[in-house]
Design a protein that fits this description.
Length: 241
């Protein structure tokens, strides 16, 4: 699970710059579509494919520019994940997802507390919506309440929200980066994603980690770390009120 953190004053400026960047980079695709640029969406998983990123410098550059814009506006990257059991296809994916979501909320609450701010969470549509909202309510008001979270998460349609789309791009990068780090033999082609973006993500990430099974303890990379699949929690915003 990964996303971006934006200060309240940077939410609109970031979305404007992201839209402009999207228009510049994918002008031909947008023109061929039947949508205006603000309605046009391209998933991060379709952009940041290892072979494409290696072959087309403009795809690397668009990723760099999103991260640079985030940094320039005081934003951060966050992620939380758990290494999967290799080859395992059973289990309870929604249960795992809600568990990770609960840990993510606590990590964001710790970050908000460290900067003296409240925060809200915005997520894109998800099939486990009811379970996620229940998890958020328990985390917000339970035995160890997350007191900086001002409301249960808001769910939006990603094709109409530029910040959610930007968070999806970041999540795709983070997911493939950590897929390579946790299972390099299986995801060897993702090494290019890690090489191009790993250091940049590490510099921007805060209160983030991936729990590794082999080492049986969390890894902290500076203030960074994510899961092998791009998450669905997209971004958190905080204010000073």
């Amino acid at each position: 699970m990964a996303g971006i953190i934006l200060p309240e004053k940077s939410i609109r400026p970031f979305s404007t710059r992201f839209l402009q960047l999207k228009e510049q980079t994918f002008a031909a695709d947008i023109e061929r579509s039947s949508h205006a640029a603000y309605k046009w969406e391209k998933k991060g998983a379709d952009i940041f494919r290892p072979k494409a990123v290696e072959k087309y410098p403009e795809l690397r550059q668009v990723g760099f520019r999103v991260l640079n814009t985030l940094n320039g506006l005081g934003g951060r990257v966050f992620y939380y994940g758990r290494e999967k059991v290799a080859g395992r296809t059973d289990g309870n994916p929604n249960g795992l997802y809600t568990t990770i979501f609960g840990h993510t909320i606590r990590s964001l609450d710790a970050y908000a507390n460290s900067v003296g701010s409240n925060f809200a969470i915005v997520v894109d549509e998800h099939s486990a919506r009811k379970e996620l909202l229940d998890c958020a309510a328990k985390t917000m008001f339970g035995r160890r309440p997350t007191k900086k979270l001002v409301s249960p998460p808001f769910e939006v349609e990603s094709n109409l929200n530029q910040n959610i789309q930007a968070a999806d791009w970041v999540a795709a990068i983070v997911g493939r980066m950590w897929a390579y780090r946790t299972q390099p033999e299986q995801f060897f082609d993702h090494a290019k994603i890690d090489a191009y973006f790993g250091d940049r993500i590490a510099r921007l990430a805060t209160h983030s980690r991936v729990e590794r099974r082999r080492e049986k303890q969390p890894i902290l990379v500076g203030l960074s770390s994510p899961p092998s699949k791009p998450p669905t929690l997209r971004f958190s915003v905080h204010d000073k009120r």
